[in-house]
Design goal:
Radius of gyration: 40 Å
Mean pLDDT: 80
Structural class: mainly alpha
Order of helices and strands: HHHHHEEHH
Length: 182
């Protein structure tokens, strides 16, 4: 089989237009020891596909295996049942772990916000699930206010330094500095 014919079969293969016989020819071609350099990039792909599609030879099946064929039809059903039971047990285990994790999170939340409450329209509420968003919003707002105060504090501090630096009399500068620090 020449290189151009193989290239054509490769194109047909990737377009999904090859027959089983043509695919087998590709597998055989790429399983040879010598493959043209320009086609080496396809060698591993077709060698793997050829190995995966290889059918076992009748001689390869042992007589012992042949004697068991058809003897125990319930084995397949039992295997499937075991797999399904295992999957169900795994699912239950995961659900239990998720439930325990949620319980732990709720207990951790209760410990963090223990004693917290809000008053809305004159009614006190201490239900953590209801008040947690309000507490978090309040904390967020307080952080914003704190940042604004820090920014203003820095401006005031800079203004104080500027005023002190512009006072020529050292005694007056010291007196005002002591007043500012009080």
């Amino acid at each position: 089989m020449n290189t151009e014919e193989i290239k054509t079969l490769i194109e047909k293969f990737f377009d999904g237009e090859t027959s089983l016989n043509e695919e087998q020819r590709l597998y055989e071609f790429f399983s040879r020891a010598e493959v043209p350099e320009e086609l080496m990039s396809y060698r591993e792909l077709f060698a793997d596909l050829g190995a995966a599609s290889a059918k076992p030879q009748p001689d390869a099946v042992s007589n012992e295996a042949k004697s068991h064929v058809g003897r125990h039809p319930q084995l397949r059903t039992q295997s499937l049942s075991r797999v399904l039971i295992g999957m169900a047990a795994s699912l239950l285990l995961l659900m239990g772990a998720f439930w325990l994790w949620n319980l732990h999170q709720e207990q951790r939340l209760a410990a963090v916000y223990e004693g917290s409450y809000v008053i809305v329209n004159g009614k006190k509420s201490s239900d953590l699930r209801k008040i947690k968003p309000q507490i978090e919003a309040t904390l967020t707002n307080s952080r914003k206010i704190e940042k604004e105060v820090e920014a203003h504090y820095d401006m005031i501090e800079d203004a104080e330094k500027d005023v002190l630096n512009n006072i020529d009399d050292p005694a007056e500068r010291e007196r005002i500095d002591k007043l500012l620090k009080e």
